[in-house]
Amino acid sequence: MDHAASPSALLPAVAEVDGPEELGVVTYVHKYMFSLKFLSSATLAIVAVMGGLYFLVGFPPAFDTYYEKMYFHAIGIGLAALAVYLVMHIFKLQRFEPPIDFPIVYRAFIGVVCAALGGLVFLNVSVSDNLPDVGVLFFLIAFILMADVGGALFIELFLLPRKLAHSYDEQTTNIVGYIGRIVPICRTDCAAYAQMGVGYWLTLAAIASAFVAGMLGFINLLLRAVGPSFFAGYMSWLGLDTQGFEDATLDPHSHMMALALMGGIVAVAAVRFGIFNSESRLRRNLARIGGLISLIGVIGTTIVLGAVALLNFAPPTLFASPDGVNGMAGDDAVMSIIGFGAMVILVALVLERRTWHNPLRLTLLGTWLAAMVLNVGQGFWIEMHQDQFTASLAANDASFKVAQPMTGIFLLTALSLVLLMVDVYGVAGRARRIAVWTAALGLVGALVGTTMWTFVDPTNGGVSFGIYVAGAGLSYLAFLFGAIAIRTVRIAPPVPARP
Length: 499
Hints:
The chain is built from 19 helices and four strands. By secondary structure, the chain is an all-alpha fold. The protein has a domain at 1-170 and 177-196. The strands form two sheets. A two-stranded antiparallel ribbon has the order 1-2. A two-stranded antiparallel sheet has the order 3-4. Helix 3 packs antiparallel against helix 19, helix 4 runs antiparallel to helix 5 and helix 12 crosses helix 17 (394-424). It is globular. The relative contact order is 0.12.
């Protein structure tokens, strides 16, 4: 089974029955000033604004310069915070959070605000040059907060089975005892984990992978900020200079983070929709097999990209042509395993009749399918025909290298998050339809635009490029509509988790 001994404490019912529920505004004896609903709505609005500014005021849709890459962290941290809120909500973690004065969701939201302020500095190159340390300082605060959030979220979720089984000892006050509390040793503690299913483990692995990705980003930022002195010996051992080590840690950081978010979204969506516990044995087993495949993909991606970043590992090229020009990148093949698992879960979900009567759920699944089309279908096609895409189709290859990270990785992940947030808070009626249809139009525009810009017309002034940009714009507009819709939802008053 995919839940602990107390199913109602861990897994929500399906969306149609569950309805909106605000979790953990009061946990233990501690009352939060700001609800999770408010933080979710505000974060969606901030992401919508920062995403709109990226296209309307700032940069072209690419990651070509240092300023663009730094600015996009303002959007990426917002997406990470939304993923944190979803995990807290789906697994009801706030009901078990310690009575601290600075809760996880507060830290995540402050990280979003600091990242947005840093992004505003990097939005204009002249402003950033005149305030060289201000933007970096805001981002540094945001990075530290989100690293803390990632570690705390992992610990909270890791301890959840024992808290549900009432075998967790909360009284230890020294560090040695605390380590003993974290590591399950006794038979009772281990038995609590035996009842947790693949949805729980996939979520936990995704959080751990995102944390590793964040650490790689810290290393990259430290190199840029203070130079190679701290890593000089290690870099020499790897045979890399400063630029080589920066390059080695940059792509694994962004790709691992994005893939961890994707894996986490697949997990929480499947748990939210109850597919791991479907009444149909076929759908239930399909979903669990898909979850296991995605879990293997998350672990494999973390190991391979970690080795690329820290051990100067060069993944082999699969199915290489005799001249070595064409072939499938080994790290891309490992990363695609997460998507293949998602496709198996997608099949299990579409076999449910109610999925076909739920436009939000269909649009969410459409983002998964579109991600596979762009990243696996088109990406592998280009890799297997590199002899053409480095010659006569070089312009097409350049367009894909710009659009694929923006659309195939981050934008589709963003749409999944906003749709899940709308579903979790039970947004209904016109507000739900507006958010869903805007997201659906953004999804279609981004997919069609990226495909046409890559394979039909790779120029920056044509119809293909216009459709691509319009799709991205509509996607961030869906964030704004989602923020407004969630803000207007009425929820039941919070109930203390404990007397």
